[in-house]
């Protein structure tokens, strides 16, 4: 499989009235074409902001770190995303080679423009289709994502569609430009489990069919277990664990990942107590020193945790955690 | 049920009238249709179903916050007994004190202009339950401690709090009037899993401590499995299955319950694609299908299901199911 995107040392801060706050801190990961990467974490962990950075889609007060490098590998050569300046240059990452779908499709469609007109509009911007070709492609995509009577739905408005149908239409729209990378930000969170299962199946089929890469952002580890090839766990703007879905879910290495799994109600053992992670995620204005998780960690091992930022240690091939528990070099100090 | 129920729906229907066209009959939405349900005192009763199944409307009808079109809801806490269909103004006011609602969204449910103390105290003041400000303060402090809120924080405004803390404030507000019956409508749905676990543990602890009875409405079956002792499954305004939690999760008898359980994403990455998939979506309640309401999506529907609507019948101890085929399929 060929490499699709490399994110190196992504750091992102926001200038606010209360000072400069860090949203993403030195995050690196890669994704191959045809793979699904799950990005997991609580609200406030920076997962959405990270994903939006890949499209440089953050507000004006966003300040990217000097060493941040995002490289998108396209058929006609690599694109350095950070160097893109104006709207014209950024077309390639905004809807061209990267598409984004959101959690709440009702808020993502313009209410007074028909679904079809919105689909055509973006095709006219990103492709060389004529209007009638664009309509044809759009209807075909609606059909492909399992919407019955696609030509009738094409001329309807978002409010006329049910929640599951809207999310399908959103996926159809995102995929009609044939992106290389799809960023799905909590695409199933607002849906019922039955519809969620349908949408997950659809997304997996599409990966196989189009060979694109997907970054799947969710807080639901069950959804991750059913979809992702690789998982990256985020906490307060930092990656804390990365690995294959089997490694991370079966043998979680970072105390935070373990905490998330212990808090999750599962049907396998309904008598198991639910163990919350103590405390709340700290405000980004009060980022803890050392390991960002040290204020809530159940496996705190000493002053090192609050003094020194842990680096990634390899647990197994392709499985790494940023925690002092595994920091052999740190032991020697 | 061995004990006398605290609250019971009897053939309860909630119909909403839609704005009709100029010709033809005025259309109805049958949000809840002929539901009978008993909740024993001290029970943590789960109500599950997809959006549009009528679970919120049923919960509200049991609080007399939705119109009761047919049937009745009977409430009896040992001190008073009410028929909710025929409540006088004074009785309704008293019922509000005994039955309370915890909302889903802790961000929308709290006024940003009131301090936490005022938010929690408001029900006491509106209902005139305390005689002096000092007494109100005392009650607020007492319930805040029970809900594991920092008493120092009572002077702050809600924006300073995280989702989990806000939900604890909502819970304190619901409990301050000393209710017996609580409807918790998707009360943990908007929370992260780590905080969800904390709020669920809090609800369970408070229930035992204060002897409360809960109707816990949720679309998340794994949460329901962990906290509820009884579960009722709704589909398009009807109950399709009710049972003690363990019975329901180990041996679901209705194809819809089975499909719902199967759709929960498994945490085992090697379990992929094994789920039995339910096609299509829940039909609109303005135009429900004839016969069994689930027949349009049911994988095992037969001709009879398309004509005759099944009624809830006993399928074991405290286990009821509304399906024509449960006997041949699941026994």
Structural class of chain A: alpha/beta
What is the residue-averaged pLDDT of chain B? 91
Describe the main β-sheet of chain A briefly.
Answer: 8 strands, mixed
Radius of gyration of chain B: 21 Å
How would you write the strand order of the largest sheet of chain A?
Answer: 7-8-9-3-10-11-13-12
Beta strands of chain B, count = 12
β-strand percent of chain A reads 15-25%
Mind describing the biggest β-sheet of chain B?
8 strands, mixed
| Helical residue percent band of chain A | 25-40%
- Tally of separate helices of chain B: 11
> Which radius of gyration of chain A do the C-alpha atoms yield?
21 Å
Alpha-beta content class of chain B: alpha/beta
Described by the principal axes of the CA atoms, the overall outline of chain A is: globular
* Topology pattern of chain A, helix = H, strand = E: EEEHEEEHHEHHHHHEHEHEEHHHEEH
What integer is the average pLDDT of chain A? Answer: 89
Distance between the termini of chain B: 23 Å
Spatial order of strands in the largest sheet of chain B:
6-7-8-3-9-10-12-11
- Hey, which two chains have the biggest interface? A-B, 44 and 44 residues
Oligomer state equals heterodimer
Low-confidence stretches of chain A: none
Form type of chain B: globular
Explain this structure to me?
Chain A is of the alpha/beta class. Among the domains of chain A are: 109-178, no CATH class; 254-332, no CATH class. In chain A, 34% of the residues lie in helices and 25% in strands. Chain A has helices at 47-53, 87-90, 92-96, 105-108, 115-126, 131-144, 150-154, 163-175, 193-210, 221-227, 245-250, 255-263, 303-307, 328-332, and strands at 3-16, 19-32, 36-40, 62-64, 69-74, 77-80, 98-101, 181-185, 213-218, 230-235, 238-244, 312-316, 319-322. In chain A, helix 5 packs across helix 6 (131-144) and helix 8 runs parallel beside helix 9. The two termini of chain A are 40 Å apart. The mean pLDDT of chain A is 89. Chain B is α/β, with parallel strands linked by helices and 331 residues long. Chain B has a domain at 236-331. Helix content of chain B is 32%, strand content 21%. In chain B, the strands form 2 sheets. Chain B has an 8-stranded mixed β-sheet, sandwiched between helices. Chain B has a 4-stranded antiparallel β-sheet with strand order 2-1-4-5. In chain B, strand 11 and strand 12 (320-321) form a beta hairpin. Chain B is globular and about 65 Å long. Chain A binds chain B through residues 42-43, 162-165, 192-198, 200-201, 219-223, 225-226, 245-246, 249-250, 259-261, 263-268, 270, 272-277, 280-281, and chain B through 50-51, 162-165, 192-198, 200-201, 219-223, 225-226, 245-246, 249, 259-261, 263-272, 275, 277-279, 281-282.
